[in-house]
Design brief:
Shape: globular
Largest sheet: 6 strands, mixed
Strand order of the largest sheet: 2-5-6-1-7-10
Radius of gyration: 21 Å
Length: 264
């Protein structure tokens, strides 16, 4: 099972749709059953069928989302996509599907990847089945990209560099970045190409928690968010703000934009 952590500033529908498209490209004959909340109708592609059911339709025929999922599973699809897991019955059905060999893709409204674990546990799901079914959790945000035609390089003050280092946290030294006269960041300026805003387009910053034996042990014991985060980061997970700061250092966005998005 793969979960995408949704946020109002970065809805995950586009990401999960892209993942489904990649699955179609790699395995055209895979059967994909999909339950979404804001779309309806039936779309066929090659030998695959995507079934889309709106919540309104489900309510009209007195079906719950979990009931619709069970109906989908009778077709024995390889991949199941769930719009969002909001209740115990839906989450439990998704985990059961994952344990029986289906790849389950779903979303959940949380602030970061480790918080998704505790959120699902608070729904009342079985922690052992959940730990065994989980492959990974991806959290994301959208930040504005600096306009390539007018972004302005500048040499930050030492206190700004110190704050950047503090916000990044552990692992900053591993980037191999030191404060000297050549250290450069970028900020918005504004031109006709970006309508004087300094920004043009958006991009994602990401936080990927990959399941491991240590993560499973923490799920078994219903560990706190900070414990899960600490272990995940020792195993290579980058936080949202770390990914954002690295992209700011590379001139793709600005530090102010990253801090603003990650603090919401």
């Amino acid at each position: 099972m793969i979960d995408l952590s949704e946020h109002k500033k970065a809805p995950s529908t586009a990401s999960i749709e892209t993942l489904l498209d990649e699955l179609f490209i790699e395995e055209r004959d895979q059967a994909v059953e999909k339950q979404e909340e804001d779309t309806e109708g039936v779309i066929t592609e090659s030998n695959s069928t995507i079934v889309r059911l709106a919540n309104k339709i489900i309510e009209d025929v007195y079906l719950k989302k979990a009931s619709a999922m069970r109906a989908f599973l009778r077709a024995d699809p390889d991949v199941v996509m769930i719009g969002e897991m909001r209740d115990l019955e839906t989450a439990s059905t998704a985990i059961d599907a994952s344990l029986t060999g289906h790849l389950v893709l779903s979303t959940l409204h949380t602030n970061n990847a480790p918080e998704t674990v505790t959120r699902l546990l608070k729904l009342g799901i079985d922690q052992f089945n959940f730990a065994d079914s989980l492959l990974g959790i991806l959290a994301q945000r959208l930040v504005r990209k600096l306009c390539e035609k007018c972004k302005e390089p500048y040499h930050p003050l030492p206190k700004e560099f110190d704050r950047l280092k503090r916000d990044y946290g552990e692992g900053f030294e591993e980037l191999g970045i030191t404060y000297d006269n050549n250290f450069t960041l970028y900020r918005p300026k504004g031109c006709d190409a970006c309508r004087k805003t300094g920004y043009k387009g958006r991009m994602g910053i990401f936080e990927l928690l990959v399941s491991s034996e240590r993560i499973k042990d923490l799920i078994y014991t219903k560990a706190k968010v900070e414990e899960i985060r600490k272990v995940a980061m020792t195993e290579g997970m980058k936080s949202l703000i770390q990914d954002g700061i690295e992209k700011a250092i590379n001139g793709l966005t600005c530090v102010k934009e990253v801090i603003s998005v990650c603090s919401k």
